[in-house]
Structure formats: C-alpha cells, structure tokens
Amino acid sequence: MADVIYQKINTSEYLNIKSKPVHVKEQLEIKILDNSFLPGAKDDDWFAHSALPALKLIEKERPGEIKSFLSIGSGPGLDVLASAEVFGSKKLVLTDLHENIVESGVQNVKANLLEPEKVEVNGYTGDIFEPLRSRTNSNENQRFDIIYENLPNIPLAENEDINKLRSSSRCLEKRSEDIPKEIKDALLDLHYLAIKQVHEFLNKNGALISLISGVIPIDTIKSLEKYIDGVKIDIYYYNWNIQTSFYSVINDYAKQEEHGYGPFIFYRENDLKKAFEGVSDSESGKKARDIEKSLADKRITATEALKRFNQGENIGYTITILKTTIIDQ
Predict the structure, then answer these.
(1) Which residue in 111, 75, 109 sits closest to 89, CA to CA?
(2) Using 50, 70 and 90 to split pLDDT, how confident is the model at 168?
(3) CB 160 within 8 A of CB 145
(4) Does residue 21 fall inside a structural domain?
C-alpha cells in the first residue's frame, strides 16, 4: 500500500481571496500518495503562483461562463478544487498517468466541495488526452470550456522509475509521435502534443491554458504556433519566481544543457524584481516580450545558475502562461 500524506490547506490563503469560499471548504484536506506531486509552500506551487492568477483573469473576462474544467496531469486534484472555486464549474475532470493517483484525486475533489452532489466529478487514467478520446467518433469526445495543463518537460533519467517519482517535472522521453526538432530541443514535446490535439476536446470559445517554465525563450515558446494549424497561441500571463530548494529544477536543466538541449535561461532575483516592477497581472502577457528584452543582458545559463545557486545566491526564472484557442470557431 502506498504511503499517504494528508495536507491541510487554507482555501482563502491558497487562492489569495479575502472572502469565504463559496464552492469549496474553507479548510481543504488533501490526500497525497507517495507517487503523486507534493504541493509545497505557495511560492513553490506553480499552479497557485502563476496559473491561478491567469484563471482569475479568465473569470473576470467571462464571468460565470466556464461550466466545465479539465486538468491534464492533475495529481492530487488541488488545481481542480481551486478552479471549482474560481469558476463555479459544474463539470470537473482530472487525468493522470497513474490509476491510484486519479482515484485519490477524485476523492479529494469530492470530499472538499461544499455541495458535491451538484457537481459532476470524474477522473481518467492515461497519457494526455488518450483516456478522453472516443474510440469510434471524435465528435463524441468530451469537451470543455477550459483545459489546464502543466505537463512535465524534463526527460526521465534511465535510473528513475516514473511510478515512484514524486516530482511533476519528469516525462518519458521516447515517444512515437513526430515532433519538430526546434520543439524537442526546447523540451516542449508534451506541450506541443497537447496543443496539437486540443481542438478535439474544446467547446466553442474554449481555451487551453498551458503553464510553461520561462527558462525557455518566448520566441521558442511561440514557435509552437507555426507547427500547428488552426490555433492561436497568446502569451496570456507572464510571471517570475525564485528557485527554492523544495523542488530545484536548475540541476535538471543544467544536465539537459550538457546533452545539447536548450538554451535555458535563469536570472538573478534582483534583476527579475526590477524588470517586473509595476506590471499588473492583466498587462503582463502583453508586456512579456518587452520584459524579456529588458533582461537580455542579464541572462545566465542553467549551468552557471546552478553554480550560483549552490553558492547561496537567489536565482529565479520567468513563467509563461499560454492561452490556446481554435481559430475556426
């Protein structure tokens, strides 16, 4: 039997709201299995730190319109619960690679909703969209108003077992799909595959929200669009964060640089603070290129970042939230 951790989370603090939650409990109790991603403090939690503000912007633009929400690779389901509070969606779905994590995630969502009997909650096990795909007719696929993904991008080491790995940053490297070299070199494989397939699973006016570490240049991230027909990809939200020891990814990216991948970009904390000073959530996406340009001479490689990080220097990176919509809708 897998080891279990029960984590208590104050909803108002996690969601950064002043009012009492209306769709989920004030105090969440999240069951986390030993092969599931373990949420850290808020600044270590990429969803809370960067994806959540983007989802709040969507709700502000389309109040009450997001009736269905899907999280690809949800883990314990905390992102689904947060989205349930933000959108008030009545259809919540999550997926993951591991059946035990899916079952636990669904239990977490149902147990922490205020009125679970009024919400359809389902979970599916499998790779990206495969468990949601109709075997007979793509028109019968489940469709959603918002789909969220923060898929892993660092190839799994040969001595690592994905069934026992708690980190959410690793993925299986060998895939059968044809992936452009530019995308593969930037470790954007799974994001590319999700965006390429998402038209089969979005409702009209729906959107895919992708969280991508900004250690990859914006031009490279935007290059996804030129390889996929019929989609519009916008930099919807742009943020930064400091690398902590809780889940250090610098070492992973430094190893990938040694194997010829990249470039991967990091910055000193003070340089990031200055570049983002005075930028609001709503304008961050539109100003992303200007911010990146202002940091051009402040870039450091993952290899150099790791050296400085190990010496005690505060090292950070940007985070990019993409919004993908279907052009012909």
Answers:
(1) 109
(2) very low
(3) no
(4) yes
Q: What are phi and psi of 29, to 5 degrees?
A: -120, 110
- Measured CA to CA, the distance from residue 92 to residue 146 in angstroms comes to 10
Token pair 């279990």 in the structure block, residue = 4
Instruction: Indicate the number of domains in the chain.
Output: 1
Tell me the C-alpha distance between 13 and 20, whole Å: 10
Residue 18 belongs to a domain? yes
Q: How many whole angstroms separate alpha carbon 77 and alpha carbon 98?
A: 13
**pLDDT tens digits, residue range 60-70?**
999 999 999 99
264 found inside a domain: no
pLDDT value at residue 137: 78
pLDDT digits (tens, 9 = 90+) for 94-127: 999 999 999 999 999 999 999 999 999 999 999 9
Pair type for strands 144-149 and 202-213: parallel
List Cβ neighbours of 108 (8 Å cut-off, separation of 6 or more).
Answer: 30, 31, 76, 77, 78, 81
- CATH number for position 54: 3.40.50.150
Only one residue has tokens 């070492």, namely: 251
